[in-house]
TrEMBL record, chains A, B, C, D:
Gene3D superfamilies: Putative cyclase (3.50.30.50). This is Cyclase family protein. The keyword NADP does not apply. Transmembrane segments: none annotated. GO terms for molecular function: hydrolase activity. InterPro entries: KFase/CYL, KFase_sf. It comes from the Bacteria. Keywords: Hydrolase. It comes from Nonomuraea typhae. Pfam families: Cyclase. Its EC number is 3.5.-.-.
Amino acid sequence: MWHDGARVYDLAQPMRRGMPQSPNHPPFRMLLERRHGDVVRTDGGSAANELIVTGGHVGTHVDALAHVSHDGLLYGGADPATLTTNDGFSELGIDAFEPYVGRCVLLDVARVHNTPVLPAGYEVTAADLESAAKNVEIREGDVVLVGTGWSRLWHEPDRFIGLTGGVPGPGVEAAGWLNEKRPRAVGGETIAFEQIAPGRGHATLPVHRIMLVESGVNIIETMRLHELLDAQVSEFLLILNPLPIVGATGAPVRPLAILSGERS
Amino acid sequence: MWHDGARVYDLAQPMRRGMPQSPNHPPFRMLLERRHGDVVRTDGGSAANELIVTGGHVGTHVDALAHVSHDGLLYGGADPATLTTNDGFSELGIDAFEPYVGRCVLLDVARVHNTPVLPAGYEVTAADLESAAKNVEIREGDVVLVGTGWSRLWHEPDRFIGLTGGVPGPGVEAAGWLNEKRPRAVGGETIAFEQIAPGRGHATLPVHRIMLVESGVNIIETMRLHELLDAQVSEFLLILNPLPIVGATGAPVRPLAILSGERS
Amino acid sequence: MWHDGARVYDLAQPMRRGMPQSPNHPPFRMLLERRHGDVVRTDGGSAANELIVTGGHVGTHVDALAHVSHDGLLYGGADPATLTTNDGFSELGIDAFEPYVGRCVLLDVARVHNTPVLPAGYEVTAADLESAAKNVEIREGDVVLVGTGWSRLWHEPDRFIGLTGGVPGPGVEAAGWLNEKRPRAVGGETIAFEQIAPGRGHATLPVHRIMLVESGVNIIETMRLHELLDAQVSEFLLILNPLPIVGATGAPVRPLAILSGERS
Amino acid sequence: MWHDGARVYDLAQPMRRGMPQSPNHPPFRMLLERRHGDVVRTDGGSAANELIVTGGHVGTHVDALAHVSHDGLLYGGADPATLTTNDGFSELGIDAFEPYVGRCVLLDVARVHNTPVLPAGYEVTAADLESAAKNVEIREGDVVLVGTGWSRLWHEPDRFIGLTGGVPGPGVEAAGWLNEKRPRAVGGETIAFEQIAPGRGHATLPVHRIMLVESGVNIIETMRLHELLDAQVSEFLLILNPLPIVGATGAPVRPLAILSGERS
């Protein structure tokens, strides 16, 4: 079959209590409800299960267009009030995002700077992206990811979240550069696809505005990209299938990178 | 690229409050926490978000091997007590399931009986599977799905859940037939991959025992297969990437079927 | 001390998964997270704990004035939009309800009709209340409860919820009668302090409008009153101290009736 | 009536997202589900509601005897395994705690040391309690509270929780002193009714062992006592009616102190 020999990379961070996540969202919690032996069926069978509390922007996830508004308007000039119900957004929610199976380009900005991990608060520039993209074509409709190496810091929650130290990411200029490529979605490894200066917290989110509100481009956050960065992979087939949670402003996803056998 | 012309089918049911789910598991609920305008940043930006409560066996999902024990033992003879923590299972949880990208065979048993929807409580037999499989090869390591047409009943929760009417599915004999093929996973459209007789409820789960406990074969439930059944697709590339919830006995997934362009 | 010899009645229904509750609210669920032995401290100690998911109108509870609006306005003509935040209501929430320690009158309408349990869908009338009140004085600022006997039906969830069969309770006329007494709060045993006709569901809530929106009188629902009814108690000291959940439209409470020793 | 002129003190801290709570327990979160206008009934009525996620040991709460075990045993030598179900504890849960309406003594140890707030990590001694109790009688079956002044620090979450700085409270010696009085329950203002040395975290809980496991005495934590301390009240009627959550190891409560008119 045509996928023979393909290599698959798991691009999601594992979800567990205490993992790094934005303080703006409900904390993830999974706990067992029934354990084996609690209820034993007549034939000797027993089933364990769990309850999960989470947010839509927790762990590796995709932002829906409904996530952000600017000056009171969503993408396309939609009035959020008319789309908002007690069951979430009737339009522009994550269920409006078609599962993506297609080309993806990874721009390794950390490598441009000869470092495995960009400094906290570093602003990724258009020149950085240009350098990282010099050997790969970006086509309209691709998903474009920006490598910072920050998925390596997953096990250091405070540093990863960057409330005091900041987080590296694209500034407004880089967002414009990305936007000109007319991508299907953009994303990266950090808690927010933004440059966050030290001490600034998540005060403003200009790249979210440019992508979600002005351009209708979804954002993928908290991806696990370091294996692809280590393998110097810049182009692959991306599977991006967030949970179809109707009306939500975002949803967890376990993205996969597939490298066809012939290319490896 | 090698996926050009591929067609993608979304095999997950949409997740929303009130959707059909097993009464044994925490009910799904998604609600908005912040709405646009609740908190407006200094630059005019505003972000909406949500809280989600769910179970691991809610909506389209994959059962981990830790889900079921029999006579006090899990797959491989493991003692559940030694693997159980307040953070879930240290082994055999859904995080032990490698994302699957591979061949999948769909056996349309409803079509064998010339019906779009098998009757409630119908036991799928080995002969049914044999008939449905007569034009397709099943290879070791494939995922094998059984079509009952029941994803067409998603919008009738009481009927779909089948507490009084029952649910069609494989009996012990059919499970044995499936098991001989040495599949990577098995699954279907119903609330439980079992034949549930009318009025019997979810009293015993013999196919879960055979698959999860005796054979180490994961089960996929509540899949949305009717588009594939309508298209008479019996073989495709399956993407099966459940959320990596560490220690959970199951996790939601949005499976995709990919049909390569040359084959369509 | 002055409470010597007092008898205490517990007026709350026990809270557990599966208890009757309005389908309009998040279902109650309590589950253990840590069990003993999961985490053992160095000294041999171990602590078990739980997670609780619930709504503010689940189990015995008090409705805050913010719970209901009519024609777009809350009590006092307040605009709900200006009081609503992602943390709930900045005014008129349950935290604005001062804990009540004071006189309470119980009007046993079931006894007026010589029955332990009023029929489903029965409308309590002003004449019923007048009869029930003939031997007890109602003073301004009292809490006034209406006995229907329905706390006896707690263990029959479908009947108690009354989605098809209906629920007995005060109609508009009786609400007017109650209101003239200028009570501090009113309440009863049923899922909603309303007369709900068979088959009508919770379509409209006129008594909620009269009490919460027009009069600023809180409502107590799902109380456990049958012990007081059996003891023919019509006057007692009520403790009504709902959880101080800031901004919520209601909160669970465990009300107590205290009968002073001299009276018993 | 006999409560005429009584003064009521609210002894519960308000519950809101971000309030101080032990990191060992699920974080409190209350959010609106329906807002006014989301669903408007035919008569112009609209109801807002909420979802609440919490733990049993969050906010002002009572510890059930089932909360703590020592060397594998609960109070009375009970084996926790035999009492544990997927619905909580079948015995010794918070539902086994009868609502308490009775005498309460408050021992103001902060005043003994002429300070409004005891230092972090301070060990309350038997001599402290003896001094604080010199003008008040403690009777068998009373609830005995220890004042540290720490409810004044509620709005400083990090300091209140004391993970690094520690928390003042009774040591083993003081617990023995309390225990000799044979109280119905004991409690205080802090996150845990223990002396927690700076930097030590919640590593061991000897007072919990002495009270819950060895003596069958419930513990009340995170109480709001500073108004009583300011008023120099040492004896009052306590209402202690935790939510009747069946099988839970603890439950939130809104305790009230009632001072009879004649005494004030």
